[in-house]
């Protein structure tokens, strides 16, 4: 594998696997230390063992991905005051780490609350909105694809599962830090392209939530992803989006200046007040002449 690593064949393989994103990142200003972790393909017997153990069928695109490389890790840094700061991270867990989402052993006491206690019984069937959110109980089988650096979890989700039956259909969902579910894509390959498009920037998954990423994450996105960074529109009480709209006809129309009121001169405002002063001055002058 060392010979392939240094050869043009391996470089071309990385270009195809990463959709050319390594070359794009290296051309961005301030980006440094772009690292792609090389991994061997997963063996078919490991994939079959995973399916048998978890009673789920891997989607075809994810199976092909693991037969190409057992996981995916690409990271890059940005220079800040001439110091590299870890910024971008793209991760797809290895087959060995594609484990069910479970709660910590700290909450294993019989009387302790469980994740299933967070489930609601609201029915969303027949709605035209997003699909029904996954459940933390036996109705769903959830596996972690990306830990998101502690900002949440991207999960491979099988919904509407029946105990004792093998689950077939899967989707990709994002679980935020408040344990709310947000739908991402219907297939792994669509999510993979989405991850590459967002350059693995911090909190990019929060673009698909009602509240969006943090202000700091938005600043990084505007710096390195100005064409695709966006924020959800906020609606006013009438249902219209709240935007800063500029109406040139109102902003730049000519304004007629109102004439300022003329100040009355001293002679006009009080002629009697100025006259005695003038008489007094004239009287003193006449007295001097005498």
Automatic annotation (TrEMBL):
Entry's transmembrane regions: none
Region Disordered, residue ranges: 113-136, 253-290
Biased composition (Basic residues): 253-265
Superkingdom as given in the UniProt entry: Eukaryota
UniProt protein name: Tubulin polyglutamylase complex subunit 2
Species this chain originates from: Albula goreensis
């Amino acid at each position: 594998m060392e010979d392939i690593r240094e050869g043009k064949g391996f470089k071309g393989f990385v270009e195809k696997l990463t959709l050319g994103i390594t070359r794009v990142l290296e051309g961005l200003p301030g980006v440094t230390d772009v690292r792609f972790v090389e991994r061997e393909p997963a063996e078919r017997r490991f994939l079959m063992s995973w399916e048998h153990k978890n009673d789920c069928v891997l989607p075809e695109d994810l199976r092909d991905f693991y037969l190409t490389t057992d996981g995916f890790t690409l990271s890059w840094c940005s220079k800040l005051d001439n110091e590299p700061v870890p910024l971008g991270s793209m991760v797809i867990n290895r087959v060995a780490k594609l484990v069910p989402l479970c709660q910590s052993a700290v909450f294993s006491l019989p009387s302790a609350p469980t994740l299933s206690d967070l489930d609601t019984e609201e029915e969303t069937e027949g709605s035209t909105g997003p699909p029904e959110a996954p459940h933390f109980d036996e109705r769903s089988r959830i596996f972690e694809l990306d830990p998101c650096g502690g900002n949440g979890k991207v999960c491979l989700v099988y919904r509407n599962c029946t105990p004792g039956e093998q689950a077939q259909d899967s989707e990709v969902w994002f679980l935020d830090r408040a344990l709310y579910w947000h739908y991402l894509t219907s297939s792994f390959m669509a999510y993979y392209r989405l991850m590459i498009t967002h350059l693995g920037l911090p909190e990019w998954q929060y673009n698909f939530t009602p509240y969006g990423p943090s202000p700091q994450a938005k600043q990084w996105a505007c710096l390195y992803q100005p064409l695709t960074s966006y924020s959800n529109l906020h609606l006013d009480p009438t249902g219209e989006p709240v935007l800063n709209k500029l109406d040139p006809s109102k902003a730049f129309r000519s304004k007629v200046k109102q004439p300022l009121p003329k100040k009355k001169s001293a002679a006009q405002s009080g002629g009697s007040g100025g006259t005695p002063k003038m008489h007094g001055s004239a009287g003193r002058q006449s007295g001097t002449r005498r």
